[in-house]
Amino acid sequence: MVESLFETDKQLQIIDCSALFPPEPMERILESVETLGKGQAILMIHHKRPRLLYAKLEERQCDSETKTLEDGSVQVLIWKKDLENK
Amino acid sequence: MKTSNLSLDQAPPEDIPFRYLLAGPAFGILAGILLSVFGEKIFITAWSLDTVALVHTITLGWLTLIMIGAFYQMVPVLVGGHVPWNHLSRINYYGLVSGILSLISGFLFWKIILLKSAAVLLLISFSLFITQILTALFRVKANRPVVYAMRSSVICLALAVTAGITMIGVLYGWWGFPLDGYSLKYIHITFALLGWITLLIFGVSFHVIPMFFLTKAFPDRIGYSIVSLILLSIVSLVIGFGMKLNGTRLIVAGIPVFIGVILYVFTLFNLIRNRQRKMVDSTFRFWQLGLACLIPALLLLTVDPFRWDEIFGYLFVTTFLIGFACSVSNGMLYKIVPFLIWLHRFSSLVGKIKTPAMKDIIADAPARKQFYLFCLSFILIVLSCIFPVDSLIRTAGVSWSVSSIILFFLQIKAIKIQPPEVPKETGMDDFTAMFKDLPPPPK
């Protein structure tokens, strides 16, 4: 079970993309943000920073925060900014 | 940490990389035609202008155009660099393609006017490309081996172009130069093959192999060491050629590149062997072939300075250029083109319509057939180097052409894919508009 690096009281939907080939991680996340509601967030687990995803998240009115681990893998917290602030 | 969204915003319009990436296979078709037309004439001597024309069809037409397309795409997206004067990249394509065609035809038909126009066109076009990319690369932090490799590679391209154009001028007596044609030729080859082609492919693979094959990250320390070792050899070899050294002394100058390549192949094989998902697709097969050719190519290079037989020079060029560089770039086209199509045309539609997977954009089955045909062409060209029989060489040329035609049409078919129209969502404004002509409700 992945432990979140973020302190948040949001209900987290954990999506582990580390074993997905590009562009599947982006596809999975963008599909899931469409279903996000108030008080909910996605916790994306990935083996590196998803550089191309951030602009796509902005297009969909999402905000995100990224934390990088020592091995270069990352956790990205994603939420809808039009529904709420973090 | 809040993230920066620079990468995608600065990506060029899709037509810029596509035009360069498509030109590669088109020149592959031309290379096959030249081989099948000239037959055994190609293997009379490596100094013959027909041979030089063929080699430049592959190095400039196939490899350099694909690499330039990749640069325009990757510098903003992978490295976060802002490429200035993006709109000029389209015009530059015409300058480069016409320059390359002038150069090839100038060599083939021995027309000085064509070589002169090639020199002018290539000088202007390469200068623009090099200025654009170096400006972008020197504005970003060099905190990754890929940036170090890309910068070094473009500087080597500048030096290779300078040496090449100087050589044409010396050959036709346009100007004098303190070094003779022999030294200039090998300096040009060193900058072009070891610097421009090898450093770029190695540097980019540090980044894309982990991304496309889900391996662990390429260790930064090893990446920096490999690039530094290759640069050390380039400097030593150029000094060696300038001083007209030969035989064992040149081998000594090449030792760092040997260590670098062995380290690269070993590290990459290790990463690939331990990759997370053992999927084998056409890109993977092309990479396997490319890596398998690298060490034999280097071994053949060690024989060439002793000048026992030109066969070793031909075998080196075939193994390195076709076996390694063309193979790897061919394989990468099967990832880069579908990825760009998906990113530019479908990523905004995810969640609204069913978007195609990468394998729906270019299926693996025809790509696999093209891989086998590519392998057949490569084997036939290797055999032609050893047994330069006219019919064998011409067959190799036809096979190489057909392989490039399949690659070209698979890319064209993919680029023609357009996203479907997405049904417009009914917003509140539309809803209000529907009732705007209705009379107000009675009180």
Summarize this structure as a short list of keywords or feature phrases:
heterodimer; A: about 90 residues; alpha+beta; Translation Initiation Factor IF3; 4-stranded mixed sheet; 4 strands; B: about 75% helix; globular; disordered N terminus
Please characterize this protein's 3D structure:
The complex is a heterodimer of chains A (86) and B (443). With 86 residues, chain A is α+β, with helices and mostly antiparallel strands. Chain A has helices at 24-33, 53-59, and strands at residues 11-16, 40-46, 62-68, 74-80. Chain A has one domain (12-83): Translation Initiation Factor IF3, CATH 3.30.110.40. Chain A contains two helices and four strands; from the N terminus they run E-H-E-H-E-E. In chain A, strands 1-2-4-3 form a four-stranded mixed β-sheet, covered by helices on one side. In chain A, a hairpin with a 5-residue loop joins strand 3 (62-68) and strand 4. Helix content of chain B is 76%, strand content 0%. Chain B contains 15 helices and no strands. Chain B has helices spanning 6-9, 15-38, 49-77, 88-109, 112-139, 145-171, 181-213, 220-242, 248-273, 282-303, 310-346, 358-361, 364-386, 390-415, 428-434. The radius of gyration of chain B is 24 Å and the shape is globular. At the A-B interface, helix 1, helix 2 and strand 3 of A face helix 1, helix 7 and helix 11 of B.
Class by helix and strand content of chain A? alpha+beta
- Beta strands of chain A, count: 4
CATH topology of chain A: Translation Initiation Factor IF3
Strand content of chain A: 25-35%
Helix content of chain A: 10-25%
Unreliable runs of chain B: 1-6
Q: What best-fitting shape of chain B do the alpha-carbon axes yield?
A: globular
Provide the gyration radius of chain A in Å: 12 Å
Discrete helix count of chain A: 2
CATH architecture of chain A: 2-Layer Sandwich
Q: How many extended strands of chain B?
A: 0
| Tally of separate domains of chain A | 1
Rg over alpha carbons of chain B: 24 Å
